[in-house]
Amino acid sequence: MLSNKIYKHFFTELSRYFFLVLFTFSIIVWAVQAVNFLDLIVEDGHGVTVYLNYSLLNIPKILTKFVPLSFLIALFLTILKFDSESEFLILWTSGLNKMQIVNFFFKVSILVTILQLLFSSLINPKFLNQSRSLIKSSNLDYVSTMIKSKQFNDTIDGLTIYVEEKKPNGVLKNIFIRDDGGVLKSLENSKDVSNVTIYAKEGKIEKGSLGNYLSLKNGTIQKENDKNEIVSINFIKTNMQIEGLKTKSIIMPKIQETSSKNLIDCMISENKNTEILNCPKTESKIDTLAELNRRFGMPLYIPVISLVLSFLLISRNENKRKNLYKYFYFGLSFLILVIAEILVRYSGKSFFYSYLYYFIPLISVPFFYYLLFRQFYKENLIK
């Protein structure tokens, strides 16, 4: 049938623009992030393979962010192309009415909505979690990753680490370690060295038969004895076990890395069950609710965009006015995405913003459908 060929042609053009825009945005952002990820090699000592795999695992995160905007631009460009080449005029004269095209736009937007839901709720969290696991299980311990020059780091509960300099070959200079939680253990005597302060001129994370360990040279261990006296022990070399240490980010995954099912369970669970459910470490459930809203709410705005851009099909005689409306509806569609982004950031703080966040797309779809139907009815193009 003629209508099927028309839809196929339109879908092909729309898909071409959509993937072109999506991958253009994604490649630019990925390239910028890839440069930032070079710290994995330069500062943290990971191999090129780890760097490349980690960078690639972050691609779904980028794609997820740009799907709505890419669809907006793709549909806008496709409509402009068909309009400039008078293909719409051929469609109307062949007997196809405008509401049929609007319905086609809407059906395509539903497909994009499903794609966005898959990325935001399933694919993206899984890939981000794998990227974290990749760093954790790489040939160097993740402790090497967290250590930065001239920065106090207390990511590990009960342990504070500071280094004056971190060289590209992994050598650490002028190291300060404060262990208040019995985290470290000496490899020489297998005893805890808790509640101690350690100074060392040099150190390096090495790999041994028992796993990764911190080799320290030319330093002092200070510990308080039973008489509350500070006892200092000088050493030329000592090794501290660091294999199996768990940071907050390792024990509790970041909120973006947590599966949607776990986030929902964490939202409805009691606080005492958060560790059992492997919930992300947040001060409250505000961020969890906002993340869930982002995953399940943002895709709902894609059909709204398709209906707003459908107003470009309205017949207008004046070219200047027609061009003005083109930019107006494109700007309105973009504004809707901006409003959605603002609302989702506040949606975790108040149920009012959450309700409003979902209310806007749910009420906009029938509202815009009604306006389009009424307008095209006036044009006597609905059969």
Word description of this protein:
The chain has 383 residues and is an alpha+beta fold. It has 2 domains: 2-138 and 266-378, no CATH class; 146-244, no CATH class. Helices cover 57% and strands 15% of the residues. It contains 13 helices and 6 strands. A hairpin with a 5-residue loop joins strand 5 and strand 6. The chain is elongated, with a radius of gyration of 29 Å. The two termini are 18 Å apart. The model has no long low-confidence stretch (mean pLDDT 80).
List key phrases describing it.
383 residues, alpha+beta, 2 domains, six-stranded antiparallel beta sheet, 13 helices, elongated
- Uncertain ranges: none
As a percent range, the share of strand residues is 5-15%
Radius of gyration: 29 Å
Shape: elongated
> How far apart, in Å, are the first and last alpha carbons?
18 Å
What value does the average pLDDT take? 80
> What's the main sheet like?
6 strands, antiparallel
| Structural domain count | 2
Structural class: alpha+beta
- Total count of helical runs of at least 4 residues: 13
> Helix content range of the residues, please?
55-70%
Strand tally is: 6
SSE string: HHHHHHHEEEEEEHHHHHH
Main sheet strand line-up:
1-2-4-5-6-3
